[in-house]
Amino acid sequence: MGKFIKAGRVVVMLQGRYAGKKAIVVKTYDDGSKARPFGHCMVAGIDRAPLKVTRKMSKKKITKRTKVKPFVKYVNYNHMMPTRYQVPAEMSPGSICTDQQMDTLDGRKEARKFAKSLFQEKFQNPPHDKSGRPSKDVLYMRKKLRF
Question: How many Å is the Cα radius of gyration of the chain?
Fold first, then answer.
């Protein structure tokens, strides 16, 4: 069986603080690493998704409701469930975070800021698929998981 958890795959977190939250695989480590000798990957996800916005709302309320709270972390393959969705290549999941950034606290903060700006931008103006409609993969990331 081929490897299907690759950069750009949308996954649902199953364990820990972010259980039930959606994330994008940034980088995979199938054979593990020295610090983590098991199959794992780096993910960037959404801790708090944007809320619904209507026309009646003020600009201040709209900006508050469209904010996203992201997270960036390493996750064991056993603690996440891949979905059928894969984000478009133009989102470039590999550029969200690097190993060097994950080593330091300041680097992680910087990665979270970049992830926040990327997610907010793509949620407000989702990339289009081949038929010209907004990409279902990004719209799936935006919605809160109902369970």
Answer: 16
Angle at 145 between CA 142 and CA 19, to 5 degrees: 110
> Which of these ranges, 51-55, 95-99, 106-110, has the smallest mean pLDDT?
95-99
Instruction: Provide the CA 7 distance to its chain's centre, in angstroms.
Output: 11
Q: Which residue type does 46 have? A: I
The SS3 call for residue 99 is helix
What residues are paired with 80 via a beta bridge? 13
pLDDT value of residue 2: 57
Q: How far is CA 78 from CA 8, 21, 38, 75, 133, in A?
A: 18, 15, 10, 8, 34
- Is the four-CA dihedral 50, 75, 126, 63 of positive or negative sign? positive
**Cα→Cα distances 100→24, 25, 97, 104, 114, Å:** 19, 17, 8, 7, 15
Residue 24 sits at the vertex; the CA angle it makes with 19 and 25, to the nearest 5 degrees, is 105
The residue-averaged pLDDT of 104-132 equals 89
Question: Would you say 74 and 36 are in contact if contact means Cβ atoms under 8 Å apart?
Answer: yes
Cβ pair 115, 96 in contact under 8 A: yes
